[in-house]
Design a protein that fits this description.
It is a single chain. The protein has about 375 residues and is an alpha/beta fold. It has 2 domains: about 1-160 and about 350-369, Glycogen Phosphorylase B (Rossmann fold); about 175-350, Rossmann fold (3-Layer(aba) Sandwich). About 50% of the residues lie in helices and about 15% in strands. It has 18 helices and 13 strands. The protein has helices at about 10-25, 40-45, 60-65, 65-85, 95-105, 125-135, 145-150, 160-165, 175-180, 195-210, 230-235, 250-255, 265-270, 285-295, 300-305, 320-330, 335-350, 355-369; strands at about 1-5, 30-35, 45-50, 85-90, 110-115, 135-140, 155, 190, 220-225, 240-245, 255-260, 275-280, 310-315. The strands form 2 sheets. A 7-stranded parallel sheet has the order 3-2-1-4-5-6-7, with helices on both faces. Strand 4, helix 5 (about 95-105) and strand 5 form a beta-alpha-beta unit. Helix 4 (about 65-85) crosses helix 5 (about 95-105). The longest helix has 18 residues, at about 10-25. It is globular, with a radius of gyration of 21 Å.
């Protein structure tokens, strides 16, 4: 069968690549054309557009690039028509994907959605649109099935793909890792400032301001695959800080603590059992808009899944050097760390076992047949 997959950002690329592998394993004649990244490209198929070309963050940034986005949508529609897929599979990235899904249904394409848009966070009225334009939804968070049930929409909980992605990683040799990146023997504090230029610029400088106050630790930046070394160097300046490019999982596997920009990385950090402080600071306009439409108690996936504060969140005006220093000191304390580890264990149990990609691929093929 012919599959057209549309994913955006690094996390979509990761989960899309694992889904592609599962589809190819289950369907020996699978022909895949996709929007994604390097990992999906390595999995096989034909790359149409890289997610780097449309990595826009926040309401303001999207508005400033609206003509470019509309042009990509037009190109995507034409490419789908030319490819004539048996099914279109959308992965997260709701702003782009739901618009394409609406158009696709007018032409009777079969539409499957893997990793639900976060309609439970804001604008729940979008569920009615999703019901009309998405034939089947596969969700990865345990509370999402009950959420959709309130709207009389039956979705499939497949488990979380990060369980597979992380469990499949080979154990790295910490000594070799440190030697390769010229690191000392000090405990490592990982800095995960995000993947987009706008958020990295806002987050990283404040994270780096703590270096002089915690000299007994080694601060290491997790570089995003979408950004150049020169971009990071401008922010790092004269500080002697190591940067590990496109090896976030390796870094987390040897880290003692982490400062993490809100997003999928908060859950990844938790699954690696690394105590963390969650950070977020966006543009004032984007934040004010988001504050009025988002109704959640928390912004990190860890706290949302557990429905309580497991990790501290420093958002917008609370994201300061003073607050970050205090919270980092907390997660370095043994008593506090033991409580975090207990909650991380419970979190993993809630997410279910392995097999999210295989479960999704099997279900998609079964429904198509």
């Amino acid at each position: 069968m012919k599959y057209y997959i549309i994913a955006g950002e690094a996390s979509g690329d990761l989960h899309g690549s694992n889904l592609m592998k599962a589809l190819m394993k289950e369907d020996g004649e699978a022909e895949i054309r996709f929007w994604g990244g390097d990992l999906m490209n390595e999995a096989g198929g034909t790359l149409v557009k890289h997610y780097k070309e449309r990595a826009f963050m926040g309401f303001v940034e999207v508005f400033m690039n609206i003509r470019k986005i509309l042009g990509m949508m037009s190109f995507c529609k034409k490419d789908i028509i030319d490819f004539e897929p048996d099914v279109i599979i959308f992965i997260d990235n709701s702003g782009f994907n739901l618009r394409i899904a609406s158009w696709a249904k007018t032409l009777a394409y079969k539409t499957h959605y893997y990793i639900s848009p976060q309609v439970w966070a804001s604008r729940a009225n979008r569920v009615e649109k999703i019901k009309k334009v998405v034939d089947h939804m596969y969700v990865i968070l345990p509370f999402e099935k009950d959420f959709y049930k309130k709207y009389d929409y039956d979705v499939t909980f497949v488990g979380h793909p990060l369980i597979d992605a992380i469990s499949d990683i080979k154990q790295i040799d910490e000594t070799i890792f440190r030697e390769k990146h010229n690191l000392s023997k000090k405990p490592i504090i990982a800095l995960l400032p995000g993947s987009r230029k706008q958020e990295i610029s806002k987050m990283l400088s404040i994270m780096l301001s703590l270096v002089d106050d915690f000299q007994q630790y080694e601060f290491v930046i997790a570089g995003a695959p979408s950004q150049s070394l020169d971009f990071y160097k401008k922010i790092i300046g004269s500080k002697n800080i190591a940067l590990v490019d496109n090896k976030t999982y390796d870094l987390l596997s040897v880290s003692y603590a982490a400062l993490v920009t809100s997003g999928t990385a908060t859950l990844e950090t938790a699954l690696f059992k690394v105590p963390q402080v969650v950070c977020y600071k966006g543009s004032i306009i984007s934040y004010q808009i988001a504050k009025r439409i988002i109704t959640l108690r928390f912004i990190s996936l860890v706290n949302l899944i557990m429905d309580k504060e497991v990790v501290k969140e420093l958002i917008q005006k609370d994201f300061t050097k003073k607050n970050l220093t205090k919270e980092l000191a907390m997660i370095l304390d043994d008593n506090h760390r033991s409580k975090i580890f207990e909650n991380y264990y419970q979190l993993e149990q809630k997410l279910g076992g392995k097999g999210a990609s295989k479960n999704t691929a099997t279900s998609i093929i079964s429904k198509l047949n």
